[in-house]
Structures are given as structure tokens and as C-alpha cells.
Specification:
By secondary structure, the chain is α+β, with helices and mostly antiparallel strands. It contains 20 helices and 24 strands. A hairpin with a 3-residue loop joins strand 1 and strand 2. Helix 10 crosses helix 17, helix 12 packs antiparallel against helix 15 and helix 15 crosses helix 16.
């Protein structure tokens, strides 16, 4: 028998089957584009994404007939919600967290409730990135769709619903909407009243690891799944990622490097609200009971993908699958830190500042600048963004003496060494870096009773294969570069707003 982990991200979806001893048996991946109909818009074609999810499930099912899948669990991005009908029809696209629509509703909410009052209910930093402002935008600008929708579901919820289960969401996913009361573990009556969102449009909230139901017979037949496959409630991708990195207790942190990079420390209690709010740190349920996490996140793999498509499109066509383009690009990286600096604001930034009105910047270009230097500067900038928050965690007393790297970016030796050198702390890489998939499989194994506890399951599924120790000389040089990096945005912010070109006198 085997367990199927599914991971749905902003640029692609994956599925992998794992045996009871934690071996990966099969892996499938499909990529999809971001739709940008207007400046500031960022959507996914929900029907296309669901088709891709069906394809990866079917591929893995066909490759694991000798180890039939008995349960599946889904790790997925947060915030993006999909309108669906009661008869399981997808009614529209999902709006991504990087979409700038909805900031006006956050401003209106601040007039009704203070940030501290809000944080005590839902400990997130108010911004347009979450589900709530997107729902309010739909309510005002596409009311017919809002009214028609039976539910608005996050991606993990949608998969379970489309497979035949009732509409439910995990506590970790519910937190990403801005409407969860974290202590009551239910939708907040006060926040629903303040925003005018109908509770009936939202799914029921359950804990990660609960069994939502079974795949319907007709769907199982169509996808090639065995009958009776259990659908296990997963959670927000970074929470599943934490479990899939082997984190089952407080005092550990994961560094997930995917489309976005997210550093996720784990606690066994809700930390001090005043200190967390002061440093722009959120609090959310882990997928394991009794644990909580915080997220510090920003663009990462999306920037490298932009570089690939902008600077290496011709190379990629010439390779035609004979060699990985990232291997070629990584071979061009200089060994030492590059003095070239990049401001990673190509899209609205993540926590702790949530800067929407900025733009990316590359500082220090010369006629001698190579393609590899630009790529390395981008990779350096991804890490520079997190230095401030890592220092804040230390000041609060949260352990960040070691990070466990996961995600597609964790396959890059060069990138992990850059991050270890910048942060000045060791970074561990597990055998399987697609930890969201592993986390979903572990939840399945626990739900069907294959293991007695999460620690036992994690020790079976997760092994660490390499440690990247910081180089003291490069760390000192990066500290100097970071001091220069910190000056970019304060000095240029008035020029970086998307509207600056229209408002600056000629």
C-alpha cells in the first residue's frame, strides 16, 4: 500500500506516492501560467489547475498499481479561493496573493478595528495578500459571481470537494483568509460582521489530519485510483512542508524555497501577541495538534524563473530537454559574493512589511557584468530579505540556530550555500526536498493508523543527507553587502511606485 501526497503551488502542482517505509515510489508534475489581464492582476485558470491536478493523480496512480494508494492528503498554497457550485462545478478563476486588488478594503477594516484588536482574533498582519480582501473585491465588482457561488474554497479544500467529499477546510488554511478566530478554531463572528462576508459561503473548519471522506467511485475509476481511497485533510503548504521536513516539536524551523521562500518556526503555544505584532510576525496552526507556526515569506523561485525566461530563453530552447537549464545557469555563478545588489520587490512583498507599491531594482550593473552575476545577485537578495526577521526572531527568544531546507530551490547546492553564508547558520537538506508532498503522505499514514505518533512517522519518512555550514569569510562579506542592501528601498522608494512614472515631473 502507499500514501499519495499532493502539492498545489502558484506555478505548478505535484503528486507523489510514498511507501509505508517512506520511499518515494512515483512523482508527477504539471506547470501552469499566471494570468495577468491587467497591471496588478495575478490569477490562475482554476479549471486548468484542476485538470493538472487530475493528471498528476492519474499518472501516479498508474505507476503504483503494485503498491495501491489507500489515502491521499493535499498541501496547497494559501489565500487563493475558488468559487464553486453545489454540484461541483468551478465557476471562476482564483485570485493569487500577489494580486494587488483589495487593499482599499484593508484600509476600511482598519477604520473599524485596531490592528491589535484584529491580531488578538486572527494573528496576521493586515494586508491585501489574504483571501478576505479578494472576496470583498468580488463581492463589490462581480456580485453575480459572489451570489452564485455555493462556497469559496481554498485549493486543498477544492481537491477534496471535487473528489467527492463535503466542503471542509483546515485550521491552517482558514487562518489565511483573515476570518478565523485562532483560539475558538472557528470563523470569527465579529470579523464576519465587520466585513459582511456570509458564513454560508465558507466551508466547515476541521483540524489537519482529519479524514474528510473517500474518493467517489466514479472519480476513482476515471483517475485510475483503487476504490475507497481516504481523503485526508492536509493544510497550508508551509505547514505541511514543516511536517514533511521532520518538524514535529517546537524549537525547529523550516526554510521552504519554492515560488516564494518561507521561513517557518514552530511553537507549542500562541506566542506573546505584542512582541509578535511589533515585529510583523503572524501566528497560525501547524497541521499537527497543539503546534503553531509563523511565516516570513517573499518572492524566491519566481524571481529565478523570471531570470530563466528573460535571460536564458534561447538556451532553454537549444537544450530541448537534453540538460537542465538550471544546471547550466548554476555553472555560471561566481564563487564569491557579487557586489551587484537586487531589491526583490518584483511583486508585492510578503511579511513583515507587505509593500505593495514598489518595484524590483538591480544596482551596480557594468559592461563587465555577467549573466551569472545577475543570477547570483538575485539569489543573494532572496536571502537578504529575511535577515531582518531572523534577527527579530532571535530578539524574541525564538530558536533559529538551524534551518531545514525544502522545496525546489533546496535542490540547488549553490543557493543553500549562499543562504547559509548570509544567515550565518547551518542549513540541512533532507533526502526528499518536496516536503509538502511528504507532509501530506505523513498525515495520511497517521490518519489510517500506520504509525502511533507523528515523531515515529517523521523519523521513517525524513532523513537528512547534507548540511551546509556557513563560511566565516563569506559571511563577513555578506554582512557588508547587507548593510548596502538595506539602503536601496529607503533611498529609492519614491521612485519605485508603479505610479511614479506618471507622477514624476518631466
Amino acid at each position: 500500500m502507499s500514501f499519495l501526497g499532493i502539492d498545489i503551488g502558484m506555478t505548478g502542482c505535484k503528486a507523489a506516492a510514498f511507501s509505508t517505509d517512506g520511499r518515494q515510489l512515483s512523482l508527477a508534475y504539471r506547470e501552469y501560467p499566471t494570468l495577468r489581464a491587467q497591471p496588478g492582476y495575478a490569477e490562475l485558470d482554476s479549471r486548468l489547475v484542476w485538470s493538472c491536478v487530475e493528471q498528476v493523480i492519474a499518472q501516479v496512480a498508474s505507476e503504483t498499481i503494485s503498491d495501491p494508494i489507500i489515502a491521499l492528503g493535499v498541501s496547497s498554497m494559501g489565500e487563493a479561493m475558488i468559487p464553486i457550485s453545489a454540484d461541483r462545478q468551478i465557476l471562476g478563476n482564483c485570485i493569487l496573493c500577489s494580486d494587488t486588488r483589495g487593499s482599499e478594503y484593508i484600509d476600511r477594516l482598519r477604520e473599524k478595528i485596531t490592528p491589535r484588536e484584529f491580531y488578538d482574533i486572527n494573528p496576521n498582519i493586515l494586508s491585501a495578500a489574504y483571501s478576505l480582501p479578494k472576496l470583498l473585491w468580488i463581492q463589490e465588482h462581480d456580485f453575480d459571481l459572489y451570489k452564485l457561488a455555493y462556497k469559496f474554497l481554498l485549493w486543498g479544500d477544492l481537491v477534496a470537494f471535487m473528489l467527492g467529499c463535503e466542503p471542509v477546510t483546515s485550521t491552517s488554511h482558514a487562518n489565511r483568509t483573515l476570518l478565523l478566530d485562532i483560539r475558538r478554531e472557528d470563523w470569527s463572528d465579529r470579523l464576519l460582521d465587520l466585513t459582511g462576508i456570509d458564513r454560508g459561503k465558507l466551508p466547515r473548519i476541521v483540524s489537519g489530519g482529519a479524514i474528510a471522506g473517500t474518493v467517489s467511485n466514479s472519480t476513482a475509476c476515471r483517475l485510475g485510483l483503487p476504490p475507497g481511497v481516504k481523503v485526508v485533510v492536509g493544510g497550508h503548504d508551509q505547514c505541511c512542508n514543516s511536517l514533511g521536513a521532520g518538524i514535529t516539536r517546537p524549537g525547529q524551523a523550516v526554510c521552504g524555497i519554492g515560488t516564494v521562500q518561507c521561513i517557518t518556526p514552530t511553537y507549542d503555544h500562541i506566542p506573546n501577541s505584542a512582541a509578535m505584532l511589533q515585529h510583523g510576525l503572524n501566528i497560525e496552526h501547524h497541521v499537527l495538534p497543539g503546534l503553531y507556526v509563523s511565516f516570513i515569506f517573499n518572492q524566491a523561485g519566481s524571481l529565478v524563473r523570471w531570470f530563466r525566461d528573460t535571460f536564458a530563453a534561447a538556451d532553454r530552447r537549444l537544450l530541448a530537454g537534453n540538460q537542465d537549464i538550471y544546471d547550466v545557469l548554476n555553472s555560471e555563478l561566481p564563487v564569491d559574493p557579487t557586489p551587484l545588489l537586487v531589491l526583490p520587490h518584483f511583486e508585492p512583498t510578503g511579511s513583515p512589511h507587505y509593500i505593495a507599491d514598489s518595484s524590483g531594482v538591480i544596482v551596480g550593473l557594468k559592461m563587465t557584468t555577467s549573466r551569472g552575476e545577475i543570477l547570483k545577485a538575485i539569489m543573494q537578495s532572496v536571502a537578504f530579505y529575511f535577515v531582518e526577521s531572523i534577527d527579530a526572531l532571535k530578539a524574541i527568544g525564538i530558536d533559529t540556530s538551524q534551518l531545514i531546507a525544502t522545496g525546489g530551490g533546496a535542490k540547488s547546492d549553490a543557493w543553500l550555500q549562499i543562504q547559509a553564508d548570509i544567515f550565518g547558520i547551518p542549513i540541512l537538506r533532507p533526502r526528499t526536498t518536496e516536503s509538502g508532498l511528504v507532509g501530506g503522505a505523513i498525515l495520511c499514514a497517521l490518519a489510517v493508523g500506520a504509525f502511533s505518533d507523528a515523531s515515529s512517522a517523521a523519523s521513517q519518512f525524513v532523513q537528512y543527507v547534507r548540511t551546509y555550514d556557513p563560511n566565516p569569510t563569506r559571511h563577513a562579506r555578506y554582512c557588508e553587502l547587507y548593510a548596502r542592501y538595506q539602503q536601496i528601498f529607503p533611498r529609492l522608494k519614491d521612485l519605485l511606485s508603479p505610479d511614479a512614472a506618471q507622477t514624476t515631473p518631466r
